[in-house]
Specification:
Layout: H1 2-21, E1 25-30, E2 41-44, H2 58-68, E3 75-77, H3 79-90, H4 99-108, E4 116-124, E5 128-136, E6 142-149, H5 158-187
Parallel strand pairs: 2-3, 2-4
Antiparallel strand pairs: 1-6, 4-5, 5-6
Helix pairs in contact: 2-5
Length: about 190
């Protein structure tokens, strides 16, 4: 009987240890004085990313970011939707011009489309790191950052990238809820 209990304890430790070891390292930061509770619409900006071999490209990554927004409570406006709106209203196709000029035009024309925008930066070293930065439309003030680091055994695949983007939206929503609870707690 004693040996069976010991074996069960060891099995539980192995199972729990494996789950903890497979969790991605992440960190979020809410800037001091930033109010993310008022954000209802988030626009997806063009990612800053150099795709390694056998990994999704820039266009696919922007699509993954927009599609992953389905888990968010905020309305997510895709980069393509913003580009089409800018093309229709200003006559400029930001998908065809220089990245820096496109970024400037993107930021200047978001007033009617979103409350904030998110820019994803991907670093591909020995482990892939995703950096999500959320900025306020109009002022371009940094409101919130989220970083998630891939495990060494995770591939640069659409599935992995979609998982990271979903994690960002979930953490952003949790941070907004926590900030709202904190604000309401102070009022009552």
């Amino acid at each position: 009987m004693r040996k069976i209990i010991q074996m069960l304890v060891i099995a539980c430790m192995v199972v729990l240890g494996t789950q903890v070891a497979l969790a991605n390292a992440d960190k979020e930061t809410l800037m001091e004085g930033a109010d993310i509770t008022t954000i209802n619409r988030i626009a997806v900006g063009a990612p800053l990313y150099q795709a390694p071999a056998n990994a999704p490209g820039n266009e696919m990554l922007a699509k993954i970011m927009a599609d992953s927004g389905r888990v968010s409570r905020s309305y997510v406006v895709s980069y393509d939707a913003v580009a089409e709106t800018i093309k229709a209203t200003k006559g400029v196709d930001i998908t065809l011009i220089d990245r820096r000029k496109a970024s400037k035009i993107f930021k200047e024309n978001l007033d009617s489309l979103a409350d904030a925008y998110v820019i994803l930066t991907v670093a591909n070293n020995s482990r892939t790191a995703f950096f999500f930065d959320v900025y306020k439309v109009g002022t371009n003030d940094l409101l919130y950052t989220y970083m998630i680091l891939a495990n060494k055994n995770e591939e640069n695949s659409e599935k992995t990238y979609a998982n990271f983007c979903e994690q960002f939206y979930k953490h952003f929503d949790r941070a907004a809820e926590a900030q709202l609870k904190k604000q309401l707690k102070g009022k009552f």
